[in-house]
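SEVERITY: medium
COMPONENT: batch folding queue
REPORTER: lab tech (J.R.)

DESCRIPTION
The queue accepted two submissions in a row. Attaching both inputs and their returned structure tokens so the on-call engineer can compare them side by side.

ATTACHMENT 1
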Amino acid sequence: MAYKTQSRDTNPRVERLLIDAYRRMTPREKAQKISQLSQACTDLAIAGIRSRYPKADEREIRLRLGALRPPRQTMIKAFGWDPKKEGY
């Protein structure tokens, strides 16, 4: 059975090199990579919020960021912020 790539946009040889590199990583290195990727996602989300709401202060930015993750009812109950009304 031929190797089936996990990514449609990645050359299978390149993907194998990447997977081999991940396999050689220590658990600590993998955890650091996950942390870095998570921070990059947060940074991108904040950039999007700042772009959509240029006048938003830091509190509003954090509320909008927070509203992307928990259920709507949690945001309303915990912060009095309705993402459907205020926007994400």
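ATTACHMENT 2
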Amino acid sequence: MLMGNGRMGAYEMKLGKGCCHGTFGELVQGRMGDHYFLITLPIPSLRSEANFIPEPAVSGLRVTDCKLKAKRAGEWLLQLFGVNGGGDLEIHSNIPVGKGLASSSADIIAAIRAIADGYSLPISNELISMIAAKVEPTDGVMYDEIVAYDYIHGQLIESLGTLPPFIIVGIDLGGTVNTIEFNKAQKAYSRHDLKQFLKAYDCVKKGFKEKSLAYICQAATMSARINQKILPKPIFHLLENLAQLYQGGIVVAHSGTVAGILLDRKIPNRLEVVSHLSREMLLFSKGLNTNLFLYDSEERILV
């Protein structure tokens, strides 16, 4: 048993495990009033997994240098609960870094969960949010379902549910984006943009209420179009044409390098459509260092 500083009582120690999913950008990201918000697009096949070996005699956490954000979050957790010990933290992830897929948020949350599991600390998604937001703007991926989330302050706005069956055909356009630096910059949203964000939010809520992906696709495209002024995607006009052709929506990483088409999984000739979209995206990006992204929500296939 581990004794804390006397304030928290005793906790059982064990090998701790934690995990967290990534995202494909965001369905919507913008501002409502004075608050920045996003609506998540969780991808369970993108995952960060953490293992933690608690060591009460050690001060602080030992972790590889590339996972320093997760280390900071873990140390905040231990400090919050008055735990004097530390331990060894190991994180494995299949989420590419700097692309807008929530790689660092997933690492942070997986680490918090693993450390809490190792020291038997009682945590909630609200507590995880608070800690994660101390490290950097966070993506709301501590929630399995789709949520509207204040990513600056780490606060849940509301839970929306799960999407109807869908497919994403996307592409990574290359390069990386530093999320912390990106979020320091003021976003030059116009009054029209702010009205569009409210409209997009309402469209998403209507889509969930009516179980209609069409409304959600409409909202995602509105948000992606506004984001062209902030972090333009050179493939946007092609995506716009393809989305109209197949009644889909444009989804982008608003602070990353990926973009794609969100489609209803029930679309006729699904495999042919996916093949056509993939060919068009690859033709556009010929000569660039790009990667395709294919996801099927029913089969949980990630390529």
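NOTES FROM REPORTER
The chain has eight helices and 13 strands.
No errors were logged for either attachment.
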